Amino acid sequence: MHRNIRIAAITAVALASTLALSACGGGNEAPPSAEGEIAGEIQYAWWGGPARNDKTEAVIDLYEEATPGVTVKGTTSEFGAYFENASVQAAGGNLPCVPQMQNRLMADYADRGALLPLDDLVESGAIDVSAIPESVLDSGRGSDGKLYMIPYGAAFGSLLVNATDIEALGLPLPPEGYDWEWLADWLTEISEKTGGRATGIVGNQQDVLEAWLRSHDADYYDEGSIGFEAQDVADFWDYAAALQDAGVTISAERASETQGLPLEQNDFSQGTVPTLFWPANGLGTAQATIDQVDPGHELQAFPLPSGPSGNGSAFWLSGLSIAETCENVATAADFIDFFVNDQDAALVYASDNGANTQTDNLQAILDSPDTTAAKKAELSLYQTLADEGVAPSVYSKGYASVFQQAVTRYFQQVSFGEITVEEAAEQFTDEAESAIG
């Protein structure tokens, strides 16, 4: 559809929606889809480094070219500083009209009323989400069930494997649907054959704990509270501690030394361990690093292990929200619709912040000759998981303090023998209950 015709259609749908709701006594306030014409200026804020900034600016240029009369003022910073600044802005009621969000941290903004529910904008047609898988879209909902974020990029945990090294050992690569027991036996066999460590530390990674819980009929959150018991966590840490005690994973000392290092400096990327739990979007970085350090090794990414409840994968989604205080909602919604659905924009952005969640655009990136083999492997793995219908990942408040920090802290104490698994699991669960409840 021609761009100007599409804008006119959205405006007409918004106006019709307003009239219909008014006639039915739908409330005193117009729905956000009716707030003004698509024109004027909006602010868009995101996180990222120089490469992502260049791609984002290119998308903005495409949007402004396609939408005469609209200006998008962009601001950016690195991830940590972005959310520190966003917290201050949310408290002061001056978030940018379109703030980039992540579903794991979104509750800290949605729960305080800083973000606008987007359901009316979707229902009116102002934002088209028809090509986003339902479970992925639902991961942009808050604990109240309302949609606060339109996901555009999906990251997810994976098992990175140096396929060249594993095949040289005469061992198989992880089969479809492999489970936690198979993984432990396989890692142990790798360690026995090499006489070294088979993987990085396991118990201190929040994404691996999340996968364990989800594959064992539990979850981080359940209706705004915690969705697990202390025994669930203890079972996982018993599993991880047994691997560490057997010398299958790196030592507690080595884990402490390498904590916080970028992937390029990780033992896996340097070729000293053949497997690693890491978000799949790190595959390209790891491959590029080992190509320099020890050429001739092919790295691959596999889904996280399955358990009694199936695969434990969760999507960590980056997306676009609208601030509750935004005074140009129609234009903000149109920009989000363009960012998510325009194929030229998708190809320019090239899944820089996770796999493209729009099905048609994902395929276009996969088909593009400009997409690297490592990126295609990441996107194909996402495509497989999305087709399987991974359950929505709905997070409540306290994610950063509880799961990004406390998981590492408690398992580190376990690793150094300062506390038992049972004590750590009880204390961690109590801390999570207090922070979230």
UniProtKB/TrEMBL annotation:
Signal sequence, start to end: 1-22
Pfam families, per database record: SBP_bac_1
InterPro entries: Bact_solute-bd_prot1, SBP
Keywords: Signal
Superkingdom of this protein's organism: Bacteria
Family annotation (PANTHER family): ABC TRANSPORTER SUBSTRATE-BINDING PROTEIN YESO-RELATED, ARABINOSE-BINDING PROTEIN-RELATED
Protein name (database record): Extracellular solute-binding protein
